[in-house]
Write a structure and sequence with these properties.
- The complex is a heterodimer of chains A (449) and B (455).
- Chain A folds into three domains: 145 residues, 3-Layer(aba) Sandwich (Alpha-D-Glucose-1,6-Bisphosphate, Chain A, domain 3); 208 residues, 3-Layer(aba) Sandwich (Alpha-D-Glucose-1,6-Bisphosphate, Chain A, domain 3); 83 residues, TATA-Binding Protein (2-Layer Sandwich).
- Chain A has 15 helices and 20 strands.
- A seven-stranded mixed beta sheet of chain A has the order 1-2-6-5-3-4-7, sandwiched between helices. A five-stranded antiparallel beta sheet of chain A has the order 16-20-19-18-17, with helices on one face.
- In chain A, helix 6 packs across helix 12 and helix 9 crosses helix 12.
- Chain A is globular and about 65 Å long.
- Chain B is globular and about 65 Å long.
- Chain B starts with 7 loop residues before the first strand and ends with a helix.
- Chain B is 39% helix and 22% strand.
- With 455 residues, chain B is α/β, with parallel strands linked by helices.
- A seven-stranded mixed beta sheet of chain B has the order 1-2-6-5-3-4-7, sandwiched between helices. In chain B, strands 16-20-19-18-17 form a five-stranded antiparallel beta sheet, covered by helices on one side. A four-stranded mixed beta sheet of chain B has the order 9-8-10-11, with helices on both faces.
- Classes of the chains: A alpha/beta (449), B alpha/beta (455).
């Protein structure tokens, strides 16, 4: 099966199968046709296919008359920040985030530095499908600028947003694993700025992924053993474009990526009370964290685009997902791994608590995630079929099906990035979530046949 | 008349109007087809100075990277230098983003094989099959290699030419030279080359700019400025490269443009005087070539127009020298490619060794008048029009190897549809100016009538 997923925030697939130079040029031309003339940023993570796509995208954007500002290997949140700084018309970030090395994706960012919203995304896809691109005849060589050290202004902005002095004074020892992705090298500068001692692993930035670049306990082995060996205060695991973070405590406990959002919320909401946005698949821990400050939680569709749109509409204080990606009103409306790591260190410094103590304050839930591969054209039909499992229940169908009772909630949805149906359940009761997931998976397996 | 088709895919590569027929998508597809054809390995990527070059180069890089080739960017370089380097570096091939003398709104891609030669007709056919079938061998992402940059590319080429010339003899003459690089890629190397030969150089149009200073075809009409400067500067000669720097036109010390065909005539005469061997030229090169060759009793082979045809024959007959009447000299001592640097070197060496002025050398050959003209004609009509005419003249001494060439005792006329533009090229040569002009007028009218009849 050839995998290609078009969604409003980007196009994703396996390089050489569906992600080809021509596809990338077509999408860049469509994006270039949609944007008013001006500069467009292009950045990428370290994947080996990144340069190929960067060249294709630059060709497409310049052919539609745009100036290209190439920031090279650069984390997506930094690209998003620079769009506004450079008053660019938009940006393309070439990264498949948490997907394995053979994948890549084009992510489209508007002039406000956020992922395209559903209207912009629909327009882009319309232009792409019509393939009527506003290609120019080129009387002049288009401007193509290579921006060196693009992160400088980003880090100096970040420094102004964090209580750097208090963090520095704490002299934290930090282990970080950027998975040889776009965060490599950038983390050296970042932790030096915060006065932390860094023990880095997989910090070569060579695009060779020693494990899938998905921040979750399964991939956190190296970080955990280094935390233990070096006596570090905390361990961070990043995805390939530094939009997601998962944590390892000073006791070398690998925390589920679900913890990142509630851990940050417990501190951030205290100083910045306001609405919290999350998606339908994220752990209930965030409700508990918000309830402490009597703050509402709004659940939206899954994906950075939907979450950030809701955050802006609701003027929310923070927004994030159980995947370890989150945004805060004091920073930028983007999933920003640097801001996330910064605020967690600030919390440890200000509250003078260890990470394991902060985690202990959160209620323990049992969350189970599973997935089943299914042809793209049957994804939504099958999800709808699963309704039969719950004839009596109240169902939230904003994004797939979400059924919640007092003791368990389950979310069945079609992935927007891969041809998969994801099934997630959570319960305070041990094994209860597993039972629920098993029930749904058995049903879906039968249906897929 | 139907709309003119602006994308030309031919033996010489692909050319089109940027933003209309020549898009980055097509460039990437061609590059992927080429990468599939050559297999994984190093591929040189060069360009000329056209404004659309950067955009198309990016597309080409992407297409090559995806097929697992390792592109080596050589930047803006003369075509002969890229051809030379491809062989020298043992690359799998090269892709050059250029439309040589076409107007600025055009661009194109040329494909070079591992021997440092343009793909032969049979190779082009294989490669185009891959393009048309669209089945490219994209590699797994972990086999994609990063692109490389070659900064010293020009030096190797110049060293090779200088090694084959009597450099000291040329240096001793301290020639005064006005060099017109037509704002093309030749400007990257010609000044250094002439300096090495001890020339005092006045450069014209040596900035690699977005717009060519004049029509880049080095025909006499485009060289007025150069002629004026040669007189002003009191130069021994003037050199005019085309934008690719594969062709060379000359201006003598009196400020007269010699006509592009004279470059080849001089080169052939000089090379044969040192080393006898077969001569290969195309059908539209001057009759003077036969006169010179008969002096040295060496055979002359005439081929279809197009560098690759001449080169193929030259390799086959082990020619001593060859080329095209448009100022493209091929001297196999350096490499079997049209090369304005070798051409300039040979002419300077000829002057140095003979001790004569350029005008004197030019006058020593039997006098012919060659005129080139063209008339617009849609691509799909051009071949039919030429075919019609060849029927009409079949009683004469006719060659239809490439368009139509009709030869009489002391004159000939040659009509051929262009491979790269929607035009028919028209050439005639005779012993007098008026006869040549009459031939041109006559055949221009006949072609126009035929086009009217069949369209």
């Amino acid at each position: 099966m050839k995998l290609l997923k078009l969604s409003i925030s980007g196009v994703r697939g396996i390089v050489g199968e569906t992600i080809t130079p021509e596809l990338a040029i077509n999408f860049a031309c469509a994006f270039g046709t949609m944007l008013a003339s001006g500069a467009v940023l292009v950045g990428r993570d370290t994947r080996k296919s990144g340069e190929m796509l960067e060249e294709a995208v630059s060709a497409g954007l310049t052919s539609t008359g745009h100036e290209v500002l190439n920031v090279g290997i650069c984390p997506t949140p930094v690209v998003q920040f620079l769009v506004k700084k450079h008053r660019a018309r938009g940006a393309m970030s070439i990264t498949a985030g948490h997907n394995s090395a053979e994948w890549n994706a084009l992510n489209f960012i508007n002039s406000r530095g956020t992922y395209l919203n559903e209207f912009e995304g629909a327009e882009l896809l319309d232009i792409y499908h019509l393939s009527r691109f506003a290609q120019k005849t080129m009387g002049q060589t288009p401007r193509l600028i290579h921006e060196l050290n693009p992160e400088e202004i980003y880090f100096s902005w970040l420094r102004s947003r964090l209580r750097v002095e208090e963090i520095s004074r704490a002299r934290f020892k930090v282990v970080a694993d950027p998975c040889n992705g776009a965060g490599s090298k950038f983390i050296d500068k970042f932790f030096r700025m915060l006065g932390c001692e860094l023990v880095a692993v997989n910090n070569e930035g060579n695009g060779y992924f020693p494990h899938d670049p998905e921040p979750r306990p399964r991939n956190a082995g190296e970080v955990a053993s280094l935390v233990k060996a070096t006596g570090a205060n905390i361990g961070f695991l990043l995805n390939s474009d530094v939009s997601r973070v998962s944590l390892v405590t000073e006791q070398a406990e690998t925390l589920s990526e679900e913890y990142t959002l509630p851990v940050v919320a417990a501190y951030y909401l205290k100083n910045h009370p306001g609405t919290v946005i999350t998606n339908l698949s994220t752990s209930m821990m965030i409700e508990d964290a918000a309830r402490k400050f009597n703050l509402p939680v709004i659940r939206t569709r899954v994906g950075q685009s939907a979450i950030i749109q809701a955050m802006l509409e609701e003027r929310a204080s923070m927004a994030g997902e159980g995947s370890g990606g989150l945004a805060m009103s004091d920073f930028q409306p983007a999933f920003d791994g640097f801001a996330t790591m910064g605020i967690i260190l600030e919390m440890m410094a200000v509250e003078k608590k260890r990470l394991s103590d902060l985690v202990k304050e959160l209620p323990r839930y049992h969350i189970v995630k599973d997935k089943i591969v299914c042809p793209s054209y049957r994804l939504h039909t099958l999800v709808a079929e699963a309704r039969k499992l719950y004839p009596e229940a109240q169902i939230n169908d904003l994004d797939g099906l979400r059924i919640s009772s007092r003791e368990v909630w389950v979310h069945i949805r079609a992935s927007t990035t891969e041809p998969l149906i994801r099934v997630i359940a959570e319960s305070p009761v041990r094994n209860r979530a597993q039972v629920e997931v098993d029930k749904v998976m058995a049903f879906l397996t039968r249906m897929v046949g | 008349m139907r709309k003119q088709l602006p994308l030309k895919i031919s033996v010489s590569g692909v050319r089109g109007l940027v933003g209309e027929s020549l898009t980055p998508q097509i460039a990437a597809r061609f590059a992927s087809a080429f990468g599939t054809y050559t297999g994984e390995g190093q591929i040189l990527v060069g360009q000329d100075s056209r404004p659309s070059g950067l955009m198309l180069k990016k597309a080409v890089l992407s297409g090559l990277l995806a097929t697992g080739c390792q592109p080596v960017e050589v930047g803006i370089l003369p075509i002969p230098t890229i051809l030379f380097l491809t062989r020298e570096k043992r690359a799998r091939g090269a892709v050059v983003v250029t439309a040589s003398h076409n107007p600025l709104s055009w661009n194109g891609l040329k494909f070079i094989g591992p021997e440092g030669l343009y793909l032969r007709a049979s190779e082009v056919e294989e490669f185009l099959d891959i393009f048309h079938q669209g089945e490219f061998t994209f590699v797994h992402s972990n086999r994609i290699k990063p692109a490389l940059h070659e900064k010293q590319a020009g030096r190797l080429h110049l060293q090779k030419i200088l090694g084959r010339l009597k450099v000291r003899a040329i240096r001793n003459r301290r020639f005064r030279v006005v060099a017109d690089c037509a704002n093309g890629a030749g400007a990257t190397l010609l000044p250094r080359f002439l300096q090495e030969l001890g020339c005092q150089v006045l450069l014209m149009n040596a900035e690699i700019t977005v717009s060519f200073a004049h029509q880049s075809e080095p025909s006499p009409e485009n060289l007025k400025e150069l002629c004026r400067r040669v007189k002003e500067f009191g130069a021994d000669l003037g050199l005019a490269q085309d934008a690719d720097a594969d062709r060379l036109a000359l201006v003598d010390e009196q400020g007269r443009a010699l006509g592009e065909d004279m470059t080849l005539t001089l080169a052939v005469a000089h090379v044969l005087s040192k080393k006898r061997g077969p001569v290969v030229v195309n059908l539209s090169a001057s009759m003077a070539i036969e006169d010179i060759a008969s002096r040295y009793r060496v055979p002359v082979f005439r081929t279809k127009t197009g560098e690759s045809n001449v080169v193929e024959k030259m390799l086959e007959v082990k020619a001593a020298i060859g080329g095209e009447g448009n100022g493209g000299v091929i001297w196999p001592e350096v490499h079997t490619c049209r090369d304005s640097f070798t051409a300039a070197g040979l002419v300077l060496e000829f002057m140095a060794e003979s001790g004569q002025k350029l005008s004197g050398l030019a006058e020593s050959f039997p006098c012919y008048f060659l005129v080139k003209d063209k008339l617009p004609c849609p691509a799909e009509l051009a071949f039919r029009a030429v075919l019609e005419l060849s029927h009409k003249y079949r009683a004469e001494n006719v060659s239809t190897a490439d368009g139509l060439k009709i030869s009489w005792k002391d004159s000939w006329v040659h009509l051929r549809p262009s491979n790269t533009e929607p035009i028919i090229r028209l050439m005639a040569e005779s012993r007098s100016k008026s006869t040549t002009a009459r031939l041109i007028r006559k055949f221009k009218k006949e072609v126009e009538e035929v086009i009217k009849k069949i369209s």
